[in-house]
Specification:
The structure is a single chain. Helix content is 48%, strand content 31%. It has 129 residues and is of the alpha+beta class. It is elongated.
Length: 129
């Protein structure tokens, strides 16, 4: 019996250069910066009707009901980080990948080809893309 799918936009936002950040700042300070960045991304996601599915290291996976609002959220994430970078010595950037399509929602997680495609896209993106 096949599970029903829901059409969603899957978005991954990955912090660029976090490995180098840990090398230059040390574990404790780098982890603090990454946590602050993930909190900012989470705030942006939830303000725009998104749902955070999970964080995986320095990456957040979330869903949106449609592609338009997901793209708006991605732009807002980039803008928020750019504003923060202007005020800080340690600037963080993200790369974003998203895909709109059918997905399986199961026990608070999301699975399927749309998830895999969004993950591939974030892997191809560069900082600030």
């Amino acid at each position: 019996m096949e599970q029903p799918t829901t059409t969603l936009t899957i978005l991954f936002a990955d912090i660029s250069g976090s490995t180098r950040l840990y090398e230059t700042l040390g574990d404790a300070l780098a982890r603090q910066r990454v946590s602050e960045c993930l909190a900012l991304l989470t705030e942006t996601i939830t303000q725009r009707t998104g749902t955070v599915i999970k964080t995986i290291g320095d990456e957040v996976m979330c869903t949106f009901p449609n592609a338009e609002v997901a793209v708006q959220a991605a732009c807002a994430m980039q803008e928020s980080l750019a504003e923060r970078a202007a005020l800080s010595k340690t600037s963080l950037t993200i790369r974003v990948g998203l895909h709109y399509g059918p997905a399986l929602v199961e026990a608070g997680d999301v699975f399927g080809d749309a998830v895999n495609l969004a993950a591939r896209i974030v892997g191809l993106a560069k900082a600030n893309q």
